[in-house]
Amino acid sequence: MIRTRADGDVRVVTIDRPKRKNALRPAELTALEAAVAEADEPVICLRGAGDAFCAGADFEVVTSLADPVAFAAHGQRTAAALAESEAVVVCGIDGPARGGGVELALAADVRVATPDATFAEPGVRFGLFGAWGGTIRLPRVMGAGEALDFALSGRVLDAEAALRTGLVSRIVDDPRAVADEIAHGKADALATVKHRLRDRRDADTQEAAEAEAFATLVEQYADRIAESRG
Predict the structure, then answer these.
(1) Residue 158 dihedral angles phi and psi, to the nearest 5°
(2) Which of helix, strand or coil describes residue 33?
(3) Cβ of 127: how many Cβ atoms within 10 Å?
(4) CA 118: distance to chain centroid?
(5) How do residues 79-107 score in pLDDT, each as one tens digit?
(6) Residue 125 gets which letter from DSSP?
(7) Burial class (CB in 10 A: 0-12, 13-18, 19+), 119
(8) Which residues on adjacent β-strands are paired with residue 15?
(9) pTM, whole model, 2 decimals?
């Protein structure tokens, strides 16, 4: 199941199947996508219950799929919901992230790990690979060389290795504290910066969009100043 609760300016979303290492079935993918869509807080903190972040797709589901393409598309939509949300998504990895769990983390805006976090793409050892957008996002995050090594070897990265390769940006004791830190920013500015930094269009188009977004924020800032002065 997916648990969600509002806590100030942060929406805490928790994958809650600890007995299965938070492995995801279609029901959890649907619920996670809905939880992200329904959040109206400026920051989402994505966590896993128990001693794992997420083991990826539930293998009991994978081995009995009637339509693998539809299942892959389902996971891609859920990952896209994280990437495209107006909220800044902070993914706190505390314990193992495997396969689809890594792919969900890659779709987040900020990934932070606790010292207990580990990461792996073990699919190749079973004759599979992650198909929830990981082959697209992984080289963007880690660089092509590191991404190929990580995905083809199936090796496990600890938190320090994940930091070194760019898979996470910090090692922290409490990922929620990072979400709170980001939530101190103004919601409109956070959303604008997120979408500007994620823009993959050509440079000229991006620069024009950047200037327009800046102008909008300046206008909103001026309005707030005017309102505060009465």
Answers:
(1) -85, 180
(2) helix
(3) 6
(4) 16
(5) 999 999 999 999 999 999 999 999 999 99
(6) G
(7) buried
(8) 2, 48
(9) 0.90
